[in-house]
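User: Second chain of the day. Same drill as before.
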Amino acid sequence: MSNFKPSLTELAVTSKKVMIMGIGGGGDVILGIPIANYVRILGVEKIYLGGVSSQWWNPKGGTRRENFVLAPLVYDVAQLEKAELWEPMLAHVNQDSSFNGKRPAEAAVSEVVPWEVFVGGLSDGVVGLRDSLNAFITNEGIDFFVGADIGAHSFHDGNETSPPFASLISLMSLSAMIQLDCPAVYGFAGYTVDAEMEIEELDERVGRIMRAGGFLGAYGLTQKDVSDYLKACEAFPDPIEPFVARAAQGDLGLKQVPIISPWGRRAYVTPLSAIYLFLDPKIMVEAVSTGVKALMDTRSMEEAETIYHEVLGQFPETWAPRAINYVGKKEHL
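Assistant: Same format as last time:
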């Protein structure tokens, strides 16, 4: 009898229902679209596409140019308007769903995809998200789950050249993923485009996971994927997500990525940025993302933030000032 772990492809060809969730907040729901297209071709009949309740909204309105957004807002999915609660921390959204007058990425993306779209809530910590996902998985007969991510921010092990900038949300989602009652796959694209890690560092960490037996296949964007992906990026503009589709169109090389500071940060976009790599999340956590385990039993954002700061020694992105204005009128001295 074979001891091989099934790849994402092998899981899909024997499955009928799948949940695909962008795990880092913001526009990560968009990352799920090519994966959804792929598993549909492989015979999956029912697809649920979603993200988590962390949005980089401008707190004062206006444009990103007027206020540079430094921190996400983690909101309670129960407070979404014109949405349906499937579970306490799982909301079914549509194009009219909103929170305090702002549309989450998932609501915007629901306009341009044919699948039911959801938001997984983080306000009750990892336990709240885990329990709601597991209840839905059991009730709906979900065959497997995919967590979609971008860049490098889930691969920090504490030995990086630069500290992580926006890892807490992804690590919380990853912590819930390794506790699900169905097979789970971590899939990421946009290799290093989030400027969270040097490419040599990410290579080392991915290699460590591969050596431990955690590689579950790969998938490259098709031309249809690129078209669908960019439509979603138009529906919900995001500063990072488009780099995946642009890489598939040959827009490669050094880029100034508009994140982390008003001046941005350098990222190197390669052909690999247009490829999804699929990994075993449990092996990933054991081999690299060891901080995930410290978050497993958290029951609130506050508890997760405290552990991330005091136990893991990192500064939560949710603690940063929401925004800074750096375009204001020049003072004459």
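The two ends are 79 Å apart (CA to CA).

User: Great, on to the next one.
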